[in-house]
Amino acid sequence: xxxxxxxxxxxxxxxxxxxxxxxRWVRGVLIGIALLFVGVVILLPLVTxxxxxxxxxxxxxxxxIKHPDAISALxxxxxxxxxxxxxxxxxxxxxxxxxTKFTFRGKxxxxxxxxxxxxxxxxxxxxxxxxxxxxxxxxxxWFIDHDIKIVFAMPGIILATMFVTFPFIARELIPLxxxxxxxxxxxxVSLGARGWRTFFRVTLPxxxxxxxxxxxxxxxxxxxxxxAVSVVSGHIRGQTNTLPLHIEILYNEYQYxxxxxxxxxxxxxxxxxxxxxxxxxxxxxRSKHGD
Amino acid sequence: MAKSRGKSVLPGFxxxxxxxxxxxxxxxxxxxxxxxxxxxxxxxxxxxxxVTSPRVVASYRISLLTxxxxxxxxxxxxxxxxxxxxxxxxxxxxxxxxxxxIPFALPTAVAGIAxxxxxxxxxxxxxxxxxxxxxxxxxxxxxxIALIFIGVPFVVRTVQPVLQELESDMEEASVLLGAxxxxxxxxxxxxxxxxxxxxxxxxxFARGIGEYGSVVFISGNMxxxxxxxxxxxxxxxxxxxxxQATAIALVLLILSFGLLLVINxxxxxxxxxxxxx
Lengths: 291, 277
Known about the structure:
The complex is a heterodimer.
Chain A: H1 24-53, H2 57-66, H3 68-101, H4 107-119, H5 122-133, H6 140-145, H7 154-164, H8 168-180, H9 183-190, H10 195-224, H11 227-233, H12 243-252, H13 256-290
Chain B: H1 13-40, H2 44-51, H3 54-87, H4 93-99, H5 102-105, H6 108-119, H7 126-129, H8 140-165, H9 169-176, H10 181-210, H11 213-219, H12 229-238, H13 242-276
Helix pairs in contact in B: 1-13, 3-8, 3-10, 6-8, 6-11, 8-10, 8-11, 9-10, 10-13, 12-13
């Protein structure tokens, strides 16, 4: 599978035959080390977020969430995701269709280019838009003359988010559609179905779980992006602060409890995302075995 | 694959490819080209002076070293975790498997403040090391810990599928020939795992070099000591030193692209091994 970042794996539960596994104590030690590692590295930070968020009780927690700045940050985060994710979804489906249904020159190059944003530091993803649209930017003058604000405003935040989450959906769909082949669509077309009808009636039902998988991962990243958004936002309180940036401001002002309270919202988003993801994975597994 | 474009009966080639290329150009290619154009505004000596100044070189060194060590730790423990998840049964296994993906899904800023509060001198783990004179937060160790967190899924998720596909015939043969378990692991299993391990290592390393959100809180951001390259770019931007920020970014970008090419060929190698076995 080409997309190394998110591969669908099933946890098998059958034990190996005795001669192909380790002595009981070796297994115990290895499991112990693995649990300790995952516990300290991953679980401990999650527990910390919750404990710190509720350290001063429910009222303080609720006050931090209900604060106007937090609400406006939440609104901006939702708006950004609501624009960036659908656009990247349309792109992902179009790219996967072009790449998996047809053969053309430069296909591998195209796939590599789609992967580019994975390799770019989030900070650079924000920087490039400042260089284009900032006051000293390449197109900066024109936008200032026309009184259009891109950088240090919402359009910049949306663009940076789109850049960072760019490959997610295409990356999920390309391997999936590759293994499914073209037969179903070709049959539909030869029976006289039009292009769009073929897509909605044949392709979409085939890829719906993979697509949903890509969308929720894209959404999680879009709502949580920090570095890229931080560079282009300008940090104007109540205006250009997303939830992750709001956390940073609270933290730097030593309002730790409030910072962790807002952080717990994003942690909830991450956990819900992963639960949906594992539900989809078992669906995908089952449909694979059903064939 | 032998089928040519003309033969495909399916519609939509021009529309989808056209849209793909247009959107890719607008969102990714033109902005990245802008970075190169802006750097071209610097003369070569200016560019060179910027990227070889002691503070910039120090930031590259810190980024590379901490990412390397974090990726190394992840290679070792990632292999172990993948092994345990694929081969053994134990209570809570599904949960542990799910937790592995947390670093992908958890916003980096959340991870950053949580790790800082754990490893700060008065934090849960930080206070254990503070009396020994070891500072974790606000030192390169802290940066490495943040990058370990970020990199966990890369190694586990690249090794796991390969380990799952591994046929047991070879292992059987090795056991029949009287090899001990450890020898079987070293001579039969480990060679199969080298490509995915290297891929996972490279992915974690590349991610670490660019990482910003989880590191800025725990690093303390002292120039020459704990200032990573992405942070230096932000600092230069805040001081309106756009050309310097751009020059530092270009070097980082070239480094990342180089790594991307290495990763792509590693993945091809890994896939070929998987298919032929």
